[in-house]
């Protein structure tokens, strides 16, 4: 399998004009990096309010990732299947223009300052009340109407296998207090992991909860379903939600519920059962409370029976938002001229809990002046 993969990757990269011969060779920050097969760098080359946007291609000699500094987005990720052929397992659009459209769905983006929902877009910190932008009914979602997903990140450093991006969010940005300096480093590891390292500092107390919003289909982007994928989540509890998908504050055991994924279970096995929580989310759109020891820990595993591709999720975060693509419907302008359908992707967003700024019993998301926000997540791929 290894030889087949190497030959296939070499052919792809040669056709794209990219060399994988010297992984230590540094690319210039404005390099015209090239993706493979389904997207063109020319369709991501733009100037937005004086900031340069480009598409960058990373490879470890086996896998290939394409990432744009617009929203720090993962546009594509090719990994080997059980036959040694490369499969793009991340959904995305064919060009920058589509990513910039309202309601594009946060595909592949780093979302912040606060990933997930904050009730009524409000929270209190150090005696002061803050009002955020509302973009999800009565709530704020993923940082508001113009969050980190819609910002041009500065490229600080890039090599064949890693990309460091930075965004400085000013005090008052989307209603959040404090000037927040955020860095995200993507690395394709030698064992086919997409390693995402987050770092942030602030000059004033604020709340921070960063995550990546990649949509995955391990049978290949454009495949019609993820309901046949086998999912394991190492969590004994989850946070139930109200009708606006805000946590009620409870932590409910998963045992004897459709939320019990402690053993490998098809995503579609119980998704349409008459469960109040599934009806509220139109499927799974819930935060799982992880069994966490300190440091990077394995928290979830997903497998496609079609390709044999297995994805392990490792994180330092206490929560994992599982979303089963319930609001996807006839998504146009996807890579390769494809259209994405209902429940044709899933998200596993590592995170602190939704609405934590209003829930003192949840793990805190407050970042104080002089402190560092540091967290790491790895999406690790193998085939069997």
TrEMBL record:
Keyword Transcription regulation: no
Enzyme class: isomerase
Pathway this chain belongs to: Carbohydrate metabolism; hexose metabolism
Cofactor: Ca(2+)
Domain of life according to the entry: Bacteria
Signal sequence coordinates: 1-20
Gene3D superfamilies given in the database record: 2.70.98.10
Catalytic activity line of the entry: alpha-D-glucose = beta-D-glucose
UniProt keywords, alphabetically: Calcium, Carbohydrate metabolism, Isomerase, Signal
EC number: 5.1.3.3
Family: Belongs to the aldose epimerase family.
Record's protein name: Aldose 1-epimerase
Organism, as annotated: Parapedobacter deserti
């Amino acid at each position: 399998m290894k030889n087949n993969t190497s030959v296939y990757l070499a052919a792809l990269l040669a056709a794209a004009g990219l060399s994988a011969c010297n992984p230590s060779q540094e690319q210039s920050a404005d390099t015209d990096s090239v993706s493979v097969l389904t997207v063109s760098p020319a369709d991501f080359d733009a100037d937005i309010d004086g900031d340069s946007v480009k598409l960058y291609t990373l490879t470890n000699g086996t896998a290939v990732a394409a990432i744009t500094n617009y929203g720090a987005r993962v546009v594509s990720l090719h990994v080997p299947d059980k036959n040694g052929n490369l499969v793009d397992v991340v959904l995305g659009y064919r060009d920058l223009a589509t990513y910039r459209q309202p309601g594009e769905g946060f595909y592949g983006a780093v979302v912040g300052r606060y990933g997930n929902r904050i009730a009524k877009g409000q929270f209190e910190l150090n005696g002061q009340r803050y009002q955020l932008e509302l973009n999800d009914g009565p709530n704020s979602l993923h940082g508001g109407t113009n969050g980190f997903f819609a910002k041009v990140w500065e490229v600080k450093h890039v090599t064949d296998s890693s990309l460091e991006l930075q965004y400085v969010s000013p005090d008052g940005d989307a209603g959040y207090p404090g000037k927040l300096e955020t860095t995200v480093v993507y690395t394709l590891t030698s064992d086919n992991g997409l390693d995402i390292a987050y770092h942030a500092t602030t000059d004033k107390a604020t709340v921070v909860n960063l995550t990546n919003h990649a949509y995955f289909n391990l049978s290949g982007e454009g495949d019609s379903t993820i309901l046949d994928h086998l999912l394991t989540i190492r969590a004994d509890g989850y946070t139930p939600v109200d009708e606006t998908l805000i946590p009620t504050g409870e932590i409910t055991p998963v045992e004897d519920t459709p939320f019990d994924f402690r053993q490998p279970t098809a995503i579609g096995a119980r998704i349409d059962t008459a469960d109040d929580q599934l009806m509220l989310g139109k499927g799974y759109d819930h935060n799982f409370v992880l069994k966490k020891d300190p440091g990077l820990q394995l928290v979830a595993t997903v497998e496609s029976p079609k390709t044999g591709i297995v994805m392990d999720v490792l994180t330092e975060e206490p929560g994992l938002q599982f979303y089963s693509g319930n609001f996807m419907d006839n998504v146009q302008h996807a890579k390769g001229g494809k259209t994405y359908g209902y429940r044709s992707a899933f998200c596993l967003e590592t995170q602190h809990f939704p609405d934590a700024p209003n829930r003192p019993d949840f793990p805190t998301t407050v970042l104080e002046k002089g402190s560092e926000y540091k967290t790491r997540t790895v999406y690790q791929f193998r085939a069997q």
